[in-house]
Amino acid sequence: MRLLFPLLLAAILVVATTGSEEEFLNQIHALQPRYGGGGTPVQGLSCLSWRLSVEAHNIIDWKTVPQACKDYVGHYMLGHQYRKDSEAVVDEALVYAQSLQLGGDGKDLWVFDIDETTLSNLPYYAKHGFGVEPYNSTLFNLWVDDGKAPALPESLKLYGKLLSLGLKVVFITGRPESQRNVTTKNLHKAGYHTWEKLILKESSYTGYTAVAYKSSERKMLEKDGYRIAGNIGDQWSDILGTYVGNRTFKLPDPMYYIS
Amino acid sequence: MRLLFPLLLAAILVVATTGSEEEFLNQIHALQPRYGGGGTPVQGLSCLSWRLSVEAHNIIDWKTVPQACKDYVGHYMLGHQYRKDSEAVVDEALVYAQSLQLGGDGKDLWVFDIDETTLSNLPYYAKHGFGVEPYNSTLFNLWVDDGKAPALPESLKLYGKLLSLGLKVVFITGRPESQRNVTTKNLHKAGYHTWEKLILKESSYTGYTAVAYKSSERKMLEKDGYRIAGNIGDQWSDILGTYVGNRTFKLPDPMYYIS
User: Fold this and answer.
1) How far apart are CA B125 and CA A203, in angstroms?
2) What is the distance between the alpha carbons of residues A253 and A119, in angstroms, rounded to a whole number?
3) Bridge-partner residues for B228, per DSSP?
4) Confidence band (pLDDT; 50, 70, 90) for A38?
5) Are B188 and B238 a contacting pair, CB within 8 Å?
6) Out of B46, B126, B156, closest to residue A84 by CB
7) Mean of the per-residue pLDDT values for chain A?
């Protein structure tokens, strides 16, 4: 059976072109070699397949980027594709946002995660293996405390347009309360000048997953009468759980996983 | 602000190489041209970005593949990448399945969707524009009634290993009850020789989404004492909703969307 599929694949081009079942049958053996042993999957890790599986949440709870994919992820993050992938997500979010009928009471919210969503830590990760190196909280917090993280331009564009549509913005980040001041300064410096709330992770959530912490904070927003129209983040833990919002958007992030 | 990010990107390679903040600052302007106007995203639809956004469930409720991506999707589906992407998902599913502690009472289930998961309709879609043409139920049902759909080889491999691990398999498909016989024959012909249940969509579910129908059927399985250890499908509607299972897996499908 495992052979039939590639044989059919091999024949498909002919069928697709001619639509002739006869030619389909006659061409199978002639075509098979063109597909490298009948389309047998190439062995070894495909970094593109790994990234797709990460973005579709098939690969979960991973600790670091596979060493074999360090250059792939680096080139992806520094090249056009990461930007184009982010743009495709934001364009879809804008189409959705523009279709919304707002309540007019200032209670329609859009939730943004911060790291790798609102702000980009790419300058840091570019110096630390693009996710191949294990997370180093000391070094990462030194970078955060510098307050120099740039905006992810596509998210800044979404932010501006959502505000102009009349939505309120709430940031929910896994950063601790102790980083409130530097985070506020960094947001302003990066071009984010107003928000309804900036929610950082209080020490009472220590030991809780991001899914639990963020779900709990979103629940409180809804209890306060807010309606979460949209929710965007680079981690599945930003958009899974409860009270996730009317629609969620997953920005690309092949550098790290937070559960 | 929109300029700072690409400028930083432009400088990152230097920083990444030398780790020198001074050089970082000094090189920004010199490096900028290397990034085509500072890394401004290339305009126009990126079919790779479109596919990623579809697989990550950012783009939803789409009717047909964008005309501009017909060749891209065709090459993807007929080439190695679709097979490698499917293999990456199945490999992850197997790592998970092998880690399971089964109850030993024959109640541990794995749920498979059928079309583009257990069986492949690629021979049909290759003759109908790889998803660019609007869905034609008459022509598609003629293809289904032929009962010649091959197995998706990666899913057949997963199926066999799950059975050998002691899991039971249940198929839940959006195909109607009227296609039970041909579906049963096709499954056997494709190499699927045993299953706990084959659940097709009864007429009572007419008008219900796939998410509602499949959630309802999974709930009944759990009520019957089964434990859904895993659930795999090519559509998000296979793995969203309720009683989705302990872990879900999304196979690639850039050809159509079912809500």
Assistant:
1) 54
2) 13
3) B109
4) very low
5) no
6) B46
7) 87
| A231, A224 Cβ separation under 8 angstroms | no
The answer to whether A193 and A210 are in contact (CB under 8 A) is: no
Determine whether the interchain pair A50/B92 forms a contact, defined as Cβ–Cβ distance below 8 Å: no
Tokens, residue A222: 């809804």
The one-letter amino acid at B247: R
Site from A48, A84, A257 to mutate, B interface, most B CB atoms within 10 angstroms: A84
- Residue to mutate among B53, B132, B234, B246, with most A CBs inside 10 A, is B53
Which of B171, B245, B211 shows the shortest CA–CA distance to B61? B211
Q: Poorest-confidence range of A12-26, B47-61, B118-132, B218-232?
A: A12-26
ipTM of the complex: 0.83
pTM over 0.90: no
Q: What pLDDT is recorded for position A117?
A: 98
Q: Which of B16, B81, B154 sits opposite A48 (nearest CB)?
A: B81
For the cut 90, the answer to whether the pLDDT of residue B35 exceeds it is: no
Whole-Å CA distances, B93 to A57, A59, A97, B99, B162: 12, 9, 35, 10, 10
Q: In chain B, where does DSSP find H-type helix?
A: 4-18, 21-31, 36-39, 47-55, 70-78, 80-98, 122-125, 137-146, 153-165, 180-190, 210-223, 236-239
Of A92-96, A248-252, B28-32, the poorest mean pLDDT is in: B28-32
**Residue A233 carries which DSSP code?**
E
Asked if the B4-250 domain carries CATH number 2.40.50.180, the reply is no
Give the whole-angstrom CA distance, residue A65 versus residue A215.
Answer: 27
**Burial bucket for residue B194 (CB in 10 Å: 0-12, 13-18, 19+):** exposed
**CB-based contact A88 B53, cutoff 8 Å:** yes
- Given an 8 Å threshold on Cβ–Cβ distance, is B92 in contact with A53? yes
Q: Domain segments of chain B: what residues?
A: 4-250
